[in-house]
Amino acid sequence: MKILGIDPGLGITGYGLIDACGDNIKLMEAGIIRSNAKDKMEKRLASIYKKVMNLIKDTLPDAVVLEELYSHYKHPKTSILMAHARGAICLAVEHQDILLVNYPATKIKKAITGRGRASKEQMQRTVTSLLGLKNSPEPVDITDALALAITHANIWGHRNDFQNFR
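Below the sequence we write its predicted structure tokens.
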């Protein structure tokens, strides 16, 4: 199963594509999508939408995984900007008729490190280790996207194993 994790952001959107077969997870592609901070909001969102559409067309994933929207009381504007980018990504996924899966941040952190409140550094080390990489993916948006994809691979695999026993 090819799984595309996307870490939505208005300025930088990270993505990571993995191929998951049983317990074997292989990194296929990872990178970032940028929008121009000087452009108007609508142009930035259109840019993200188009780039995600092209990414999906080029990689043909079986599923796309996004982090659920959250808001921190100290930084509410950040979640609003993330929601804009997330909306453009959701629209692109829907227009490509691909399965869209959402997980809360704490579930992703727990699935990857065993702790729902893991730090960014812990997430980077664990994702790097799980994928057998020599260096941690940079920027951290890529690590977050890969963590999303790996989480879904593990959850999807366990669900399929359970269904096979029925």
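The first strand starts at residue 2 and ends at 7.
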